[in-house]
Write a structure and sequence with these properties.
Largest sheet: 9 strands, mixed
Helix content: 10-25%
Oligomer: single chain
CATH topology of the largest domain: Aminopeptidase
CATH class of the largest domain: Alpha Beta
Mean pLDDT: 91
Number of strands: 25
CATH architecture of the largest domain: 3-Layer(aba) Sandwich
CATH superfamily of the largest domain: Zn peptidases
Structural class: alpha+beta
Number of domains: 3
Shape: elongated
Strand content: 15-25%
């Protein structure tokens, strides 16, 4: 009944918008956490304000039927997004990790507000595309933000304790203060005691310590009378264990789901990324810890090509340079690792390098430091004083403690904008590391039989090769560069063609990064022999790369006979 009631409440929130989030000057208060409806309202306002640069699309529905929205950002006057290298940025796959979605939304706002003012942003929006998805898992994010529910990911009911019932024993706000904090129970065998430096703080009990001692648990009751409290809360799936590469059954990987891509949110993600082969990098935001997880992920690290790992390390070093925070491999052991992650699937099945920024290092290195900071800087409002409460099964308890969701897992709202802003320079730098095609002016040469030779050169002036990684090359999941000639009142009479449409293979092109094992050349060429059959005949040369973009020459008149 509790699950049904919660789901009903969440369904009632779908589509409810909150106007006025975007100010008259187009800015947004970034020291706020926004719901799914509010995020969509902000993005819709941006689309109206920046129709040349922003387009909002729906890529699927969540478990509860909410729109899964993606904001596309690029300068449409310099070409469609599909013809430019793209960066995919998301957040909110894990429900309580609210900062991740806040960063994605703030990043989109930074791009739109910076165009025409910031040279780097202007160049990127002109030459690249961005797909920004602040709410990967809108059901779970809203459950956490709006209802205070503690859950890992999707709200789909799961029988976590194996008793044949689903979600029957969640946490509860027993004292009605609007927060789910902690309960402490006096117990001579308890493993916690008050700190001698600050009695509000509970520390681990040591040998020879003096009491009182406590057992500590989350706020709630034993709804199913099995002797355990809050052991079968809302949901139980982990959407970032539901991707098809290196997936494992739930007995081995908790939260993996019944089969790969069983959930609408993950299925929509794989479909979207596969349908957008111009995506050259993925930023899959999470919290917390204050570092970035890099590849390898969800497999034995020995499976990874060493040259690709060197590339990943090189790109990651820039994050540390810009933020003074570390980058760590997601997988370090042959068998003890995560299974079914997004960045593992993206690398093995799409050749794309993905990153998992674990935002927010917390307030200080200890709970005492966190208490001190929130007392001195935040007015003490993130601590709920320990208050007596009559519990139906435990008897006398005290409820209180830190509102940890906005201390440990996420920054207090006052610090949210700064935490997100710290990562944006690296995001922009990564977007600049894509492949990028540049074409020379085509050359026309008249031949003796009245035909004309048309030739053109193309170069990858970007950083990455057009195949992105050696995995992309080896698995042939990234298409090579192709040349194409467009004709007006003319026809091709001789060329090394891929097909009858006038396409000619160029192959993959190396970037400025010297990735060992890549093709040696960063440039290529194509040549056609064409013949005009009417006055005013003209040609245009096109070089196309899924990852390096599409470049076109202007229409060039063919010389008269």
């Amino acid at each position: 009944m509790k699950t049904t009631m919660l789901v009903s409440l969440l369904i009632g929130l779908i589509g409810v918008t909150s106007a006025g989030q975007v100010r008259a000057d187009g800015t947004v208060d970034w020291n706020r956490y926004y719901s799914h409806a509010e995020s969509n309202a902000i993005m819709e306002a941006w689309v109206k304000r920046h129709p040349k640069f922003a387009r909002l699309m729906t890529i699927g529905k969540s478990y509860l039927g909410a729109d899964l929205t993606v904001l596309e950002i690029t300068n449409q006057e310099t070409g469609p997004a599909s013809e430019k290298p793209a960066l995919y940025v998301d957040g909110g796959i894990h429900s309580s990790e609210l900062t991740s979605g806040a960063l994605a939304l703030q990043f989109a706002g930074h791009l739109l507000q910076g165009y025409g003012k910031d040279a780097q942003i202007t160049s990127l929006v002109d030459t690249r595309a961005f797909y920004v998805r602040p709410k990967f898992n809108p059901d779970g994010s809203d459950a956490t933000l709006l209802r205070g529910v503690s859950l890992r990911s999707s709200v789909r009911p799961v029988d976590s304790d194996g008793d044949g019932k689903m979600d029957e024993d969640p946490s509860e706000d027993l004292n009605g203060d609007g927060y789910i904090t902690q309960m402490r129970v006096v117990d001579p065998k308890g493993d916690r005691r008050p700190s001698t430096e600050d009695p509000r703080v509970l520390v681990r009990r040591g040998r020879g310590d003096k009491g009182p001692f406590y057992r500590v648990m989350s706020e709630g009751i034993d709804n199913d009378l099995d002797g355990q409290i809050n052991e079968d809360g809302i949901g139980g799936l982990d959407l970032n264990r539901n991707f098809p590469r290196n997936w494992a059954l739930p007995f081995k990987q908790g939260g993996a789901g019944p089969f790969p891509l069983s959930e609408p949110e993950t299925h929509a993600t794989v479909r979207f990324i596969t349908d957008h082969p111009n995506i050259t990098g993925i930023l899959h935001n999470h919290t917390s810890g204050g570092f970035v997880y890099r590849l390898p992920s969800a497999c034995d690290p020995a499976m990874f090509d060493s040259n690709d790992i060197e590339l990943v390390k090189t790109l990651g070093n820039k994050f540390t340079e810009l933020t003074e925070r570390p980058v760590r491999p997601s997988s370090t052991h042959a068998t003890r690792h995560r299974y079914g992650t997004l960045i593992s699937w993206a690398y093995w099945d799409r050749g794309i390098i993905g990153w998992v920024p674990e935002l927010w290092p917390g307030l200080g290195r200890s709970e005492l430091e966190a208490f001190r900071y929130q007392d001195e800087k935040l007015g003490g409002r993130y601590f709920v004083p320990w208050t007596p409460h009559d519990h139906p099964t435990l008897g006398k308890v005290e409820i209180g403690g830190l509102r940890s969701r906005f201390i440990r897992s996420n920054p207090p709202q006052e610090l949210l904008e700064a935490e997100c802003a710290l990562h944006i320079p690296w995001f922009l730098w990564l977007a600049q590391r894509s492949p990028l095609l540049k074409m020379s002016e085509p050359v026309l040469k008249r031949l003796g039989d009245g035909s004309v030779a048309v030739s053109a050169d193309v170069e990858n002036v970007g950083y990455l090769p057009t195949h992105l990684t050696l995995r992309g090359l080896e698995a042939k999941v990234v298409k090579p560069v192709v040349a194409h000639i467009e004709l007006r009142d003319a026809k091709v009479v001789n060329a090394n063609l891929v097909d009858d449409a006038g396409r000619s293979a160029v192959g993959h092109l190396r970037g400025s990064y010297a990735l060992q094992g890549s093709p040696e050349g960063s440039s290529g060429s194509a040549r056609w022999v064409v013949k005009a059959y009417a006055p005013g005949a003209a040609v245009s040369v096109v070089f196309a790369s899924d990852t390096g973009g599409t470049v076109r020459s202007k229409w060039i008149p063919l010389p008269a006979k």
